[in-house]
Amino acid sequence: MELSEVGRVCIKTKGRDAGSIVAIIDSGEDKNYAVIEGAKARRKKCNVRHLLFTDRKINIKKNAAREEIVEKLAEERVA
Description:
79 residues; mainly beta; SH3 type barrels; 5-stranded antiparallel beta sheet; 5 strands; 35% strand
């Protein structure tokens, strides 16, 4: 199981979006960074050390639209 896989649900621990529930939408080539987005967090590149990984995962495609991410998080009762 790779922690920074697309669809992994995390909690942002640092920055202005701290405490927000987010999903990884692109893990990229650099394993130290991932692109995240959530209902209360904007889409941005984030250091994986600033994320608290959960065991939850939502079924989304890489670079999914914001509406799809918010809908899946709500559907899974995560956010």
